[in-house]
Amino acid sequence: MSFDHTIADISLHEAGRHQIRLAEHEMPGLMALREEYGEAQPLKGARIAGSLHMTVQTAVLIETLTALGAEVRWASCNIFSTQDEAAAAVVVGPNGTPEDPQGVPVFAWKNETLAEYWWTASQIFAWPGVDQDPAQGANMILDDGGDATMLVHKGAEFEAAGAVPQPQPEDPEEYGYVLETLRKSLGENPQRWTGIAENLRGVTEETTTGVTRLYQLARDGQLLFPAINVNDSVTKSKFDNKYGIRHSLPDGIMRATDVLLGGKVVVVCGYGDVGKGAAEALRGQGARVIVTEIDPINALQAAMDGYQVATLDEAVEQGDIFITTTGGKDIISASAMTQMKNKAIVGNVGHFDNEIDMAGLAQLPGVKKVEIKPQVHEWVFDETTGRSIIVLSEGRLLNLGNATGHPSFVMSSSFANQVIAQIELFEKSALVHQGEDPYENEVYVLPKVLDEKVARLHLDAVGAKLTELTKEQADYLGVDVAGPYKPEHYRY
Amino acid sequence: MSFDHTIADISLHEAGRHQIRLAEHEMPGLMALREEYGEAQPLKGARIAGSLHMTVQTAVLIETLTALGAEVRWASCNIFSTQDEAAAAVVVGPNGTPEDPQGVPVFAWKNETLAEYWWTASQIFAWPGVDQDPAQGANMILDDGGDATMLVHKGAEFEAAGAVPQPQPEDPEEYGYVLETLRKSLGENPQRWTGIAENLRGVTEETTTGVTRLYQLARDGQLLFPAINVNDSVTKSKFDNKYGIRHSLPDGIMRATDVLLGGKVVVVCGYGDVGKGAAEALRGQGARVIVTEIDPINALQAAMDGYQVATLDEAVEQGDIFITTTGGKDIISASAMTQMKNKAIVGNVGHFDNEIDMAGLAQLPGVKKVEIKPQVHEWVFDETTGRSIIVLSEGRLLNLGNATGHPSFVMSSSFANQVIAQIELFEKSALVHQGEDPYENEVYVLPKVLDEKVARLHLDAVGAKLTELTKEQADYLGVDVAGPYKPEHYRY
Amino acid sequence: MSFDHTIADISLHEAGRHQIRLAEHEMPGLMALREEYGEAQPLKGARIAGSLHMTVQTAVLIETLTALGAEVRWASCNIFSTQDEAAAAVVVGPNGTPEDPQGVPVFAWKNETLAEYWWTASQIFAWPGVDQDPAQGANMILDDGGDATMLVHKGAEFEAAGAVPQPQPEDPEEYGYVLETLRKSLGENPQRWTGIAENLRGVTEETTTGVTRLYQLARDGQLLFPAINVNDSVTKSKFDNKYGIRHSLPDGIMRATDVLLGGKVVVVCGYGDVGKGAAEALRGQGARVIVTEIDPINALQAAMDGYQVATLDEAVEQGDIFITTTGGKDIISASAMTQMKNKAIVGNVGHFDNEIDMAGLAQLPGVKKVEIKPQVHEWVFDETTGRSIIVLSEGRLLNLGNATGHPSFVMSSSFANQVIAQIELFEKSALVHQGEDPYENEVYVLPKVLDEKVARLHLDAVGAKLTELTKEQADYLGVDVAGPYKPEHYRY
Amino acid sequence: MSFDHTIADISLHEAGRHQIRLAEHEMPGLMALREEYGEAQPLKGARIAGSLHMTVQTAVLIETLTALGAEVRWASCNIFSTQDEAAAAVVVGPNGTPEDPQGVPVFAWKNETLAEYWWTASQIFAWPGVDQDPAQGANMILDDGGDATMLVHKGAEFEAAGAVPQPQPEDPEEYGYVLETLRKSLGENPQRWTGIAENLRGVTEETTTGVTRLYQLARDGQLLFPAINVNDSVTKSKFDNKYGIRHSLPDGIMRATDVLLGGKVVVVCGYGDVGKGAAEALRGQGARVIVTEIDPINALQAAMDGYQVATLDEAVEQGDIFITTTGGKDIISASAMTQMKNKAIVGNVGHFDNEIDMAGLAQLPGVKKVEIKPQVHEWVFDETTGRSIIVLSEGRLLNLGNATGHPSFVMSSSFANQVIAQIELFEKSALVHQGEDPYENEVYVLPKVLDEKVARLHLDAVGAKLTELTKEQADYLGVDVAGPYKPEHYRY
User: Fold this and answer.
1) Which residues of chain A neighbour B259 with C-beta distances below 8 Å?
2) What is its pathway (chains A, B, C, D) (predicted)?
């Protein structure tokens, strides 16, 4: 096949294009960037290796990057999350056909194996000619979770060592596939990743996990290129977490259970941005929310917002529904689950599935798991009495598992940060290669004025009219008419 | 087949029983009635002909009726609304098997034809031996929409006339099937419906449409048996309409479109109970609601509740989403739809599908209907620009078409009214046949104290503890300690 | 004195006129009636005896009545509630001077004695020449609480009996003053009240108390003229109770205590319209509301609205603030008050001061009452520990005692009902005297279409634009284009 | 006079003590600090010069400082804000009498002249013996607005220069009094302020204005001692601004105007923390809020929270009430005020009175200012038509001018930050004088763990129960069990 991609079924492309068209309408930030930069082509010359859930929204992101001049190769950052019709549509492109695809090489399909996953991850760096001349390879990474970045760093590290180590017993299973992938690569080209790393101008990363890895690399002096932390833009963290969850949490519970939320007692564990969005959504449905918190400041905010703040011990027998939002672990123990009301519903919108002790639940003596429908399971404690609880999405993120994750508008905000960060890094890092160095091999957040720009791009869509400062007013406040308007520590 | 029923596929019964078990937990009103009356068997001797959507919730209703002693035969009141697994589970019963069903005869399956529908309606009156002895037939009707009641009245009318008329050009198509059914019956037994009518002690009816028909019959002196209007119980109308829609409206929009509700401008047409629930739900999601109203009192309520009140003309270009809740017709005209923003979403949670002028929309020159997915259609006004709107559920009730209708808890309240009304009418109407006449052939609402009882049955489930009046306090207020507590005109 | 009135200090009239001018802006219903009927003068010939709190808002009411052609004499219906500057301004009138008053005779001042009070009540019937010719006297009563109506009925009763009885030991103290007033009258003119009663075309009454008395008189066949129950207009009861309290409850607590409402636990006793308004206001301030209820329907509404429903026993140790809204008695007992948290705040917005057992509180052994400021008292249970609670307005209505009662806009709605009822009764009762009898000596509520009219008059002021039904839509709904739009039992 | 203080009327002390007692109950943070540190006396040896509004809440602060061992001298930081009864009570102390005061020297009374004000400011540094030995003087400043800090810096600067300059034409009038005060001092003791400055261990400052001055001094290398910026503690800025305003804004409008907030259109200028609190309060009263914003991020937040975002130009004719919350200037111009609806209400809860162009308003041709009552003025544009607007508190902070400012609970949070910062600086700066230097002459914010401590101290009072991390959970999150729990950039 002359065209370089692998997806499950390219015939899905028409269904994908319908959905992309509707999603474009809900992603005004990305569409505004196409409008603003379409002519200037600021990403002309950029070759972006992208690793991010291959969904309809990501399709709009990819086509925004190409509209700004970039060449792109794409893989998903999760073995389950690809929407095949979106992948197909991106490969074919708006004007192509399955026979003559004119889109972007995509290496992603729903339900990959781990071996396949790491193969796709390596493919986004396999630009034509890169083995002959690394300067023909990717010069930018767009990352979600840090897998693409990690692959380059590990590849270069092992090439420097001249060998790929064997997996150790304490390594997670998945790491074996990483090593296998790199071992194969080392055989093929012992300087491949070294060359790739040298030609990368930087990475933009949008998750807490990925950002944490980047800060560790930078702290240890091992970061091989500059990084922009998109995760901590206000227009990413505050919007994605709070307003995204406010929508997708009730959506997930409703689809999963059809249980009336009005009049229910819901225990929300955590009152960070995710918890704030969750509590607001549930109160808006007439539920009574009890919050648990470990941080006294957030706890006091919850109380001031009118919620009861209690420990899980106190609330465990009152709750009809329990939602974790913390990013911590063992928030709801197996023992707590046994104390809940019959048919209590338990779900997670925090981070990993260890917020709920699913392993402990499965090990309870006599417990029986009954599938009500996919992603909705009844865990029966006692078959005689029928006493049981309902667990959503096996303890993983229920807004993804029982609904469809964050709506497009929220992703538009996150992805506009990605695009702007790509432009910023591609343009400025270019200067590094010309002997100037606005960005070193460190981790940066987007300048506040660009964060404000992302917000600005979404105002029209919600009918918001912005007031403009006069020069005199701006001087009085000590800010520029064009922003940024707030000190760095401002909390919004 | 010795067992008297007809459903599509009885093998679904296990899936249905799972769902019934979970629904029972969310229908505390019905379960409390089983608890309270299980021993006394107040419906012993009742033979109930039921016509109501054959869903999982209705299964819990049916099994409550039988738990109270009734015999039951059932049909759906809508050709689309049957959940086949619920029907199967009811037929088999909790202790039966497909080979040895021990449940209730059900005549209902998803997607009936109109001919089949009216056949099922007649089957709920076809009790064994009824043609020989009408006193062996149904003595109660439980109705939703009035079709069962209408069939009896028309049947008796034509038997009195000795002939069934031909359908007239102005009759709705469906009426032809009614006439056909009765014509066949007249051939079989020229006194069938007359006998059935004479043995019916009454009907309980839960819809506005059905109740309106009953009041017309009563006004014209043609009502053949007493009727209880369950629709206007507070615990039906206020709860079903307001709290049911508050849940099922956002559920439906989210499932249909995945569009972020936060920040959207939503035009809600009507601020009755349905509109109040709709507006509350949307505000709870961070949408900005604009209300349209024809009634100045409701309009003033909307304003006092903080909503902008405008005409559709004023709001048509601002709205991102339009929801009708009125029970009226032509609320959103085709012309209005052409003036909406590109990709505006239009849906109905009012009553009939004529709230939105779907016919007018389809007749617009050049308009094209694209199915995005079932029950979600894009109507493209102009293929060049791609200008279009999205219509949910073809203009019919989107909370049914795009979600799963009212949650079980809400139906528990409505159905507890049905059961209590059945007991009331069956017990008291018995007296009529003994020469006393607490109920004449008129339409009654449930006594307030029974309405209060329905509420009372649901308090435990939401953790509400009721305060009891002392005798002295009750005397001061001029009420009985046990209620009722409010004058008839009290508005809640 | 040639001009017939008695107020404390007419020199206050300028301050009063300022306030009246501002209040007019907030009473669009009354101003719209002046606009609509100013020319037609429908109250021309009406001589209205008014008994209603002589406040700034009442001043706007009085001047609306005169603008529509009526002659008016006024007294307050409460010995404390007169705002002297409002009384002065009404007496002087917009164009008069203290030397040449051109307004309305007002018999009211702040802090009347009971003897003075009943003298003022009799003065509103002392029209010039009435003793010579009763037809020159009042022909309409506008009443609040029923004192004016009661005076006429008792006067006529005693005149028929030929004697005024002595007060009995079980009579309230105040009744002695009524008897004294009538005894004096009997001496002056033994047919005075009989003549007055015969010439009265009717009364309009706006309180629950007054309405209850009227229904009792009608039931006993003793009502001497028709009555319109303004209290049960939707635009009175629902608006006054819910939206009035939503404003004036937090206003009162804030003025009284300056205590932050955010984060507080507030126990609201009762979830009728007053309780609904109270709960909404407190939640809007970030308080956590616990509701107590005796009526299961209202209790279920509270739960569905997201409030915890508990008994006072359960909540008494959790609450920071306790508010009664019930109209019942002994809602908060002295014993409950001793169990509250130190410095808990207790207040009443229900009806009479016996909702809180103030007498029992005062009789607790060792209790000490400390005035923090007028209408705010600390009741110290134990001087050693300083344990105490705060009681607002001595247990009487705190929104009146600690704030200024309902805002003008709310009163505009109530008073527009009064004016419309006066017109209705004056115009239609005139027909009675012409031998027709649209109104008998019964109690009526305003026709729904007039209730709707009151709402209509307030829409402009809140910027609400009403949608008009087409003839076709109205026919479909079975209503008139001009209303009324709802069945009588509709609950809003 | 042997006792060193000056207040208006010491006989008010009993009234003050009542209020202090009630305020203590609402200031749990300060009371908890007394409990925690009363025995350890961490401020033993601290001599604190305090400059902060001499209110009842400040009295609780002062007595907390002394309970922790400090000696204190106090002045107000505003000529109008002293509550004389609070000042009297503090001077007398809980156990003293007017004849034998045992409290704290206070130099403050309501309505000081500017000359008096700067005299009181100098008196808080006039510790007995300080002129002889500066080490006997103040060693700490607790400041609000920076006047005390400025006096020391200017004093030392002029002493170094050997002369106090003459005021320049461009200087504000008030600066003349500062110079006069320092000129007199220079005559008395030419090294007074130099000595004082050398002995000061630091200042804690709680306002934006004061903090800005401190950062300027530090940037210019002129800061003479370390400073802690209490203003930017989360428990100060987020709580004071948002929850304080949520309470005191409706309080102020209600007391000033008695106008129903329900159904009104309120334009809130600015959606920072103050604007967020304002909008929430008004929506909670049933008002419809329109937000104006210059910052696109805040604007998008407002839209996501369901508010209309418009420019003032668009909204000026719709608003019934206009509230500025920005900290900027000329937010509402005189020209805008002329375009408002008749009787629109205009008020400020932002910062300075120049948010509303009061000067421009006064200069409008023909405009007339009518006092309705103190702090409430009608500005009549046209006497013929009566067209006018209402301005609250002359454009200054209406929550202070028309109500009583922030409630005690909010101040407890701000003041607990002050006390903790005093302890931190006094204890640690002591080390500086011992040759260690944890704090340099820079501006610091409180460590996050102390910010969390302030929150922790308030949880009991609102009934919030905090969850404690296990060691394992804390390790997983990479935090300490005892906190701090969040990264510095966390936005709450």
Assistant:
1) 26, 407-409
2) Amino-acid biosynthesis; L-homocysteine biosynthesis; L-homocysteine from S-adenosyl-L-homocysteine: step 1/1
